[in-house]
Amino acid sequence: MSVLITGGAGFIGGHLSKQFVDRGRDVTVLDSLEPFYDLGIKQRNIDVARQTAKKSGGTYEFVEGSVTDSEQVTTLVEDADYIFHHAAQAGVRVSVDNPRKTHQINVDGTLNILDAARDTDVKRVVNASSSSVYGKPNYLPYDEEHPTTPVSPYGASKCSSEHYVRVYNEVYGLPTVSLRYFTVYGPRMRPNMAFTNFVSRCINGDPPLIYGDGKQTRDFTYVEDVADANEQLFEIDDADGEVINIGSGGRITIQELAEVIRDEVDPTLSIEHVESREGDARHTHADISKAQRMLDYNPDISIKQGAKLFTQWYQENQNWYDPLVRNS
């Protein structure tokens, strides 16, 4: 079984690569190594997957390139049985500063994948989407029927990509699924996120820094649960054409998250607040009943458990990881 993972040197794609190789699958990763954050983390993802391949029955190949290169995409897709499309220009604030770049990578890149796949015998294209498509909540938790009114160019790009993925299933019969991720976290995650910033500041003796009042809530999802949801789509066909939330099913305020991490590292630290940032959703909370029904998805790690697990991993890997976080 040949698997193509776009963005496979990134955080979620790197975990998929490792898990799929560990299960004996042959994985090819396409990644542009965009220096959105320190490339040392992406290189670690590549190294972890390669090391796993040496111990398992699977294989791992890394190809440097972009989903915006239609010829390269077509060549790789021709040899793939399954495609897990995670390549994207991440970051709400980046998209506010440069919406056209976000559109080019996230929308045009997705179209390149879909165009290449519809002319082959690809068994499934799994598209990584985001809870950013929802925008301001009409109600919580968000179910998949909730209106999509994104509040950032990043969210708009993910919403557009979802529609193309769905249309290619309906019009061309291409087996596709879009998974809407809710703030994924875990080992080797992107450095410029609340989790990493909180832990880094605490272990260096600085108070956690919260943007806004801290009452905003997030449905944080542990990366291993996300990888398990993707794994199900090797076997399950009933989800083709669907959009499915992948979250923890719970939520926590940013204030509570900072307190959990602070208490794990140094309970004597205070917590500081600064002005909120443009483009961030106020609340996210996933209704995961559809994922439970269609993918047998049952996340194992609660947010507070995951915060402690990630903090422990961070401390164990502090020597190489923390400098990258502090320099981001």
Shape descriptor reads globular
> What average pLDDT do the residues reach?
95
Content-based structural category: alpha/beta
User: Helical stretch count?
Assistant: 12
What's the number of structural domains? Answer: 1
Strand order of the largest sheet: 3-2-1-4-5-6-11
State the CATH superfamily name. Answer: NAD(P)-binding Rossmann-like Domain
- State the oligomer: single chain
CATH class: Alpha Beta
* Sheet of most strands: 7 strands, parallel
What is the percent of helical residues?
A: 40-55%
Beta strand %: 15-25%
Distance between the termini: 37 Å
Topology:
Layout: E1 2-6, H1 11-22, E2 26-31, H2 39-55, E3 59-64, H3 70-77, E4 82-85, H4 92-97, H5 99-117, E5 124-130, H6 153-172, E6 176-181, E7 184-185, H7 194-203, E8 209-211, E9 217-218, E10 221-222, H8 223-232, E11 243-246, E12 252-253, H9 254-265, E13 272-274, H10 289-295, H11 303-316, H12 318-326
Parallel strand pairs: 1-2, 1-4, 2-3, 4-5, 5-6, 6-11, 7-10, 8-13
Antiparallel strand pairs: 9-12
Helix pairs in contact: 1-2, 1-8, 3-5, 5-6, 7-9, 7-11, 9-11, 11-12
List keywords for this structure.
328 residues, alpha/beta, Rossmann fold, 7-stranded parallel β-sheet, two-stranded parallel ribbon, 12 helices
Structural summary, described in words:
With 328 residues, the protein is α/β, with parallel strands linked by helices. It has one domain: NAD(P)-binding Rossmann-like Domain (Rossmann fold, 3-Layer(aba) Sandwich), CATH 3.40.50. The protein has helices at residues 11-22, 39-55, 70-77, 92-97, 99-117, 153-172, 194-203, 223-232, 254-265, 289-295, 303-316, 318-326, and strands at residues 2-6, 26-31, 59-64, 82-85, 124-130, 176-181, 184-185, 209-211, 217-218, 221-222, 243-246, 252-253, 272-274. The chain starts with a strand and ends with a helix. The model has no long low-confidence stretch (mean pLDDT 95).
